[in-house]
Specification:
By secondary structure, the chain is α/β, with parallel strands linked by helices. It is about 65% helix and about 10% strand. The chain is built from 20 helices and ten strands.
Length: about 575
């Protein structure tokens, strides 16, 4: 119960903005409870008047019941209308806060858990938390109302009351056992749902590649296995529910039989009038439903606790590490940065080892080397997508662990090898990175990225919907759009991670010209397999196994690095062969 109260306090933080509505809702609920307590008494009056043939009293009581039922319907309407708004607003605030927290998680957490964990918690779990006040109120109202009926039976006959009290307690023990058993299975079920959700997300995002690889059968087999696991967990819950329902049905039937026998005995012993016995039997179902609502209440509390644990563990950072930043704020950096004895590993596999280098403001530096040499890792560490294990990274002489999130990411733009393009229009994709983007700024950025001619050829121009993942764009167009986004941000440090890899030679030359135009104005770092794209860099660092094996200009490296020369000659041979085949 302590855990439930603590979780309820956390949920209240997201509902308190609807305080007036909640107070009004609770007032209506109280009114409904009062009505529900009165109705059994009036119902008993109808039965007594019917058996006695008291027509006038019967008509009066019936009219009163009619008026109170109208009042109940009005109360119920406003109650339902209020709780819908409360749930909607609470859910929206909770999901927004959860979304914020997910964006602050360490990338390694996302890599390890997969998207399904967060999709399920953003949707299903947050919804269950937001509905807790309605669920609690509804179940407690019903429990209180039916306890009132039990109190009325006590006034009518103590023996019948004692019998119902004992049977209610026995049924409660059974409900408590059922609820605890289901709760354990529910946790396993949600975990299996997360795995299924993650796989579905992968399947949808990779749909075209799956088709091209002719891998539908293997993916469907894997999908079937994951679904079977999730369905097995669901089956176990349903199976337990059915078994308990069967047992509960038998007990209720036995209770019914024993109650009839008890009432018959009391009538025979002249301890109870037939009309009163009829009233007690008529309301015995209301007493039995106390256990149902108690069971429902137990389910709601356990379900709420589980959902709260899953959601607030992300919001509070318990078990899901969040990115850590410092307090030093830099509005605009100069662009100097350096790595001092930096080491880093992914899952115990060393990627960088004791790496040291410095880049000066407005310098253009390129990184080359074989795949897995650690080039992209350098960019990820500089943007603080991951934390260094050993060593220090500095921007303008300040350790990045001391800087705020904004100081780092507001001043660095990274253009990835496979940029993610949102399922929005071209205009909306560009506006994402800058509020109040003007038409002139947008057009100029697209011109520099060599994308303006393509956009102008489209029927809807900048208002063209791109499609999920930029499916309506070619690889080169996606990368040029990503470059346009970077140019709009106007950060002091621009990182190109294979940003020209999907471009044809003509477009690549245009992009090269754009990069040349940015030289001496921005600090530019480039990762490239095509050495032709970086030969004009101020410096080139040749990496191998996480270490800098050589550095210098293109001409210097050709003279002093055999590996670099070998890569360059290999690329030249490819170009010569391509030209011969054309």
């Amino acid at each position: 119960m302590k855990e439930f109260i603590n979780n309820l306090k956390l949920a209240w933080k997201f509902s308190k903005y609807q305080k007036k509505r909640l107070i009004f809702y609770l007032f209506l609920s109280l009114l409904e409870i009062i009505i529900s307590l009165i109705m059994p008494i009036l119902g008993a009056g109808i039965i007594i008047n019917l058996t006695k043939g008291a027509v006038e009293q019967l008509v009066l009581v019936s009219m009163l019941v009619f008026l109170i039922e109208i009042l109940r319907n009005v109360v119920s309407y406003f109650e339902s209308d209020n709780i819908k708004v409360i749930n909607k607003e609470t859910s929206a605030k909770l999901q927004t806060e959860l979304g914020k927290s997910i964006l602050k998680l360490e990338n390694s957490v996302i890599d390890k858990n997969g998207s399904g964990v967060f999709i399920q918690r953003l949707t299903k779990d947050s919804y269950k938390i937001s509905g807790i006040f309605f669920s609690l109120n509804r179940n407690l109202s019903n429990i209180i109302t039916n306890l009132g009926v039990l109190g009325a039976i006590f006034i009518m006959n103590e023996k019948a009351f004692l019998f119902m009290l004992i049977t209610t307690f026995i049924n409660y023990l059974l409900e408590n056992k059922r609820s605890s058993s289901i709760s354990r299975e529910d946790e396993k079920y949600r975990e299996s749902q997360e795995r299924a959700s993650s796989f579905i997300s992968e399947l949808v995002r990779g749909l075209r590649d799956i088709k091209m690889l002719n891998a539908e059968k293997s993916f469907l087999k894997k999908f079937n296995d994951i679904n079977l696991e999730a369905n097995e967990s669901s089956y176990k819950i349903e199976d337990k529910q059915n078994k308990f329902s069967f047992l509960k049905g038998l007990i209720l039937d036995l209770n019914d039989l024993l109650l009839i026998m008890l009432l018959a005995y009391l009538i025979y012993a002249k301890e109870l009038e037939t009309a009163t016995a009829l009233i007690i039997y008529n309301y015995s179902g209301r007493v039995s439903s106390i256990v149902y609502f108690i069971g429902n209440f137990l389910d709601v509390t356990k379900d709420f606790n589980l959902s709260s644990k899953r959601v607030f563990s992300i919001i509070d950072g318990n078990g899901y590490n969040k990115e850590k930043f410092g307090n030093k704020e830099i509005t605009k950096v100069k662009g100097d940065f350096e790595f001092e004895n930096v080491s880093f590993s992914y899952d115990k596999k060393n990627v960088l080892e004791n790496l040291t280098f410095k880049v000066n403001a407005n310098e253009t530096v390129a990184f080359v080397g074989k795949s897995g040499a650690g080039k992209t890792t350098i960019f990820n560490l500089l943007c603080k997508m991951y934390d260094v294990k050993e060593g220090t990274i500095k921007i303008d002489g300040i350790d990045i662990t001391e800087l705020t999130r904004e100081s780092i990411r507001r001043n660095i733009t990274i253009i990835n090898q496979n940029p993610y393009i949102f399922n929005l229009t071209i205009r909306e994709n560009l506006k994402i990175v800058k509020d109040g983007l003007t038409e002139k700024e947008m057009v100029e950025a697209c011109r520099l990225a060599c994308l303006d001619d393509f956009i102008e050829s489209l029927p809807d121009k900048y208002d063209t919907l791109i499609g999920e993942g930029g499916i309506n764009l070619s690889g080169g167009q996606k990368q040029r759009l990503a470059i346009a986004r970077a140019l709009i941000q106007k950060t002091e440090i621009i990182l190109f991670d294979e940003a020209t890899s999907a471009l044809d030679n003509e477009t690549q030359n245009k992009i090269q010209k754009a990069i040349e135009n940015m030289k001496s104005t921005y600090t530019i770092m480039i990762i490239a397999h095509r050495l032709s794209t970086i030969i004009n860099s101020d410096r080139i660092l040749f990496l191998d196994n996480g270490k800098i094996e050589a550095e210098g200009t293109h001409e210097e490296l050709l003279k002093k690095s055999k590996e670099y020369k070998k890569l360059y000659e290999k690329e030249l041979n490819k170009i010569i062969k391509t030209k011969k085949n054309q």
